[in-house]
Fold this protein.
Amino acid sequence: MKWNVWGHSLEETEQFLQEGGFPRFRAKQLHDYLYKRFVYDFAAMTQFPTAMREWLTKHAVIEKPEVIRKQQSSDGDTTKLLLRLSDGSLIETVCMHHDYGNSICVSTQVGCAMGCIFCASTRQGMERNLLPGEMLAQVYAFRMLYDIPVHSIVLMGSGEPLRNYDNVLKFLHLCHNADCLNLSYRSMTLSTCGIVPAIYDLAKEGLPITLAISLHAPNDTIRNRILPASRRYPIGTLIDAAVHYFNVTGRRVTFEYILIQGINAELAHAEELCRLVGPLACHFNLIPINGTEHIQFYPPSRQQTERFAKILEKHGKSVTVRRQMGDEIQAACGQLKRRYLNDQTKHS
Ligand code: SAH
């Protein structure tokens, strides 16, 4: 079988080229072609001797996911792509265009096993983990096809990144690598539903990655109801892990909190939330729930959201309310894929 040269560390590429008897510096040149110059045809890599180009054509491929749908919000601020992987799996990736730059929201798994009841990605369960190259290709889909400079990366697409730990870490290293995207770890955010032991592992890596925790509730009763995977990790142990992450990395933790009317959006919940996290230096990202065509959940009113935010601020927390970017283009996890699959079934 041919080796896919896309999405490997420099050391891995060096090792592969050594099999053909080529010197190490050729690996860096190959990475330049792939990640800087967007050359995806061995025959066009004219810096290489003919024999090397022929050897590559015989032993290697450049296999990257193919873009099959593109959607743009009417204000142009959000672009979403549906990609088909080599095994036919479908994944989504989103680019959010902010004033300060572009942020790419990357999927880490095909589907998701976590079962959060508000999330479309998990409806069909988990199919498989994504490889580092498949995550990297999501970023390059924007960078190369649409000439979009990438400023930051958020692992908030489909999947639970801490359940695909090794591949996710390899991907983040690739993004950091000067021969690849050259992004600082500080511009990368990993969002997790709270796999407590893996948060401790991540802290040990010693990387200044921002940790975002999908908290979504001020207590175990509500959390277990909407986020079934949380039953294994009581909310107190999750907060302890967040405190540990902050102590070890010095990085302020972000708590994501989806606001769902009638479930977790009362002002008493905001007070309870402040008691729960205590003095921890943290940031709250409040997300009025969006686009849930599969479940009858609704966001609270704007005033209610503002009142909720004020309570957190009164307790010294920094708070942002996420703009509902991309709702009209099904930007919440897994929604474009579900829509596409429904269309396919209707037409077949
Ligand atoms: N598994 C990881 C990352 C993927 S989900 C995690 O749980 O954090 C990324 C974020 O999108 C999470 O905060 C998730 O709760 C949120 N999300 C999922 N469905 C949503 C919806 N319908 N409306 C708003 N946010 C949603």
Observations:
- The chain has eleven helices and 14 strands.
